[in-house]
């Protein structure tokens, strides 16, 4: 198999790998076969403080060694740290691959004498990087080295795209189920509202909301009150299924990443928060009719719509972030303005209006 077909095969696997762990394993197996390495691995690396690394996928690396590496050896692995600090560049042990040298040893990696190592890293966010490592017991010569370098460079764009698609897949596959409703977009932020991860498509949608202010890698809300409330919830690591709309066009949901079980094995964002956006379900034709025909205030019309879905005062209060007493007063005003004298009449009138 020549180098061009090698690359095409690797690209084909990566194009379908997001959301399919077995294909990530097949990708590593293909690397071993094509580049004649003894083992290889994809690791996620925390670049802050006491740096840590965890295996996402690997091939031909014993479980015992993986445990030793994650518990201790990763802190001694200067090569892995080097490539993570210099992403999107191929390295051979401590040396950029373009200046390949024979017999460069890295004592931190002593898995069955596989001291010859090639590696490249992809940034995940400002604190994490994904590294791809290829390990050899020996390198036969300059020609083999150049083939390894060329293959890694050729594969890097497809690998980077597949990694980010896998991020999105892992979130999208569970976020709708968690929210119980479709969503328009989301960002992942830290407790200081620095953006850790965002999808360009979703960011373009979210940026159009009047209540949102996104500048570079920072997320903010235009309402100081809502911004303060959001920060308070994050500080206490509280989940908010819905934050009342500020711009009358959207709702926000705050979800700590660690509340979503099995969402991530990437671990890049475990201390972060998902801020998801949905359309305001209360912005519909029935709402407009109530306000236009019966001269209801927006708050009264919103309570009327919720009453049509569920007549329980407690449920309406919880859904609209109002006190139960406020909801009762709004419904009294609604009944008076709509000229009905019982909740049964109110329900019938609302349903008739909704089906127009």
Account of the protein in words:
By secondary structure, the chain is an alpha+beta fold. The chain has 3 domains: 3-163, Beta-Lactamase (2-Layer Sandwich), CATH 3.30.450; 181-279, Beta-Lactamase, CATH 3.30.450; 285-354, Arc Repressor Mutant, subunit A. The chain is 44% helix and 20% strand. It is built from 12 helices and 13 strands. A 6-stranded antiparallel β-sheet has the order 2-1-6-5-3-4, with helices on both faces. A 5-stranded antiparallel β-sheet has the order 8-7-13-12-11. Strand 1 (39-46) and strand 2 (52-59) form a beta hairpin. The chain is elongated. The mean pLDDT is 82.
List the helices and strands and how they pair.
Blueprint (H helix, E strand, L loop, with lengths): L2 H14 L4 H15 L3 E8 L5 E8 L3 H9 L6 H8 L5 E2 L2 E2 L19 E8 L4 E9 L5 H38 L5 E5 L5 E4 L1 H7 L5 E4 L2 E4 L2 H12 L4 E4 L6 E7 L16 E7 L5 H9 L4 H12 L3 H8 L3 H14 L5 H12 L2
Antiparallel strand pairs: 1-2, 1-6, 3-4, 3-5, 5-6, 7-8, 7-13, 9-10, 11-12, 12-13
Secondary-structure element series: HHEEHHEEEEHEEHEEHEEEHHHHH
- The name CATH uses for the topology of the largest domain is Beta-Lactamase
Q: What would the principal axes of the Cα set say about the shape?
A: elongated
Termini distance? Answer: 66 Å
Number of domain modules:
3
Question: Helix content range of the residues, please?
Answer: 40-55%
Strand order of the largest sheet: 2-1-6-5-3-4
Number of strands: 13
């Amino acid at each position: 198999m020549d180098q061009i077909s090698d690359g095409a095969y690797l690209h084909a696997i990566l194009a379908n790998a997001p959301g399919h762990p077995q294909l990530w394993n097949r990708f590593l197996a293909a690397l071993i076969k094509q580049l004649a390495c003894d083992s290889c691995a994809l690791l996620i690396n925390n670049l802050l403080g006491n740096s840590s690394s965890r295996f996402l996928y690997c091939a031909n690396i014993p479980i015992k060694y993986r445990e030793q590496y994650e518990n201790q050896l990763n802190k001694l692995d200067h090569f892995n740290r080097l490539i993570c600090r210099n992403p999107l560049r191929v390295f051979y042990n401590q040396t950029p691959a373009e200046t390949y040298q024979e017999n460069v040893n890295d004592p931190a990696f002593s898995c069955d004498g596989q001291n010859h190592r090639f590696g490249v890293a992809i940034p995940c966010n400002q604190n994490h990087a994904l590294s791809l490592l290829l390990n050899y017991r020996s390198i036969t010569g300059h020609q083999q080295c150049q083939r390894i370098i060329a293959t890694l460079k050729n594969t890097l764009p497809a690998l980077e795209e597949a990694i980010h698609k896998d991020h999105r897949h892992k979130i999208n596959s569970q976020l709708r189920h968690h929210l119980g409703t479709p969503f328009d977009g989301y960002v992942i932020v830290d407790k200081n509202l620095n953006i850790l991860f965002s999808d360009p498509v979703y960011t373009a949608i979210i940026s159009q909301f009047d209540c949102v202010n996104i500048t570079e890698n920072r997320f903010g809300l235009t309402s100081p009150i809502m911004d303060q409330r959001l920060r308070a919830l994050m500080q206490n690591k509280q989940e908010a299924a819905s934050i009342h709309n500020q711009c009358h066009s959207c709702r926000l949901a705050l979800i700590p990443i660690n509340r979503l079980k099995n969402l991530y094995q990437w671990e890049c964002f475990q201390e972060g928060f998902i801020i998801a956006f949905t359309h305001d379900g209360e912005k519909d034709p029935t709402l407009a009719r109530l306000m236009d025909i019966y001269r209801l205030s927006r708050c009264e019309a919103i309570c009327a719509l919720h009453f049509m879905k569920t007549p329980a005062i407690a449920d309406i209060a919880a859904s609209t972030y109002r006190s139960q007493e406020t909801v009762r007063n709004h419904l009294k005003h609604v009944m008076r303005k709509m000229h009905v004298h019982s909740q049964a009449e109110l329900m019938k009138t609302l349903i008739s209006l909704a089906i127009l």
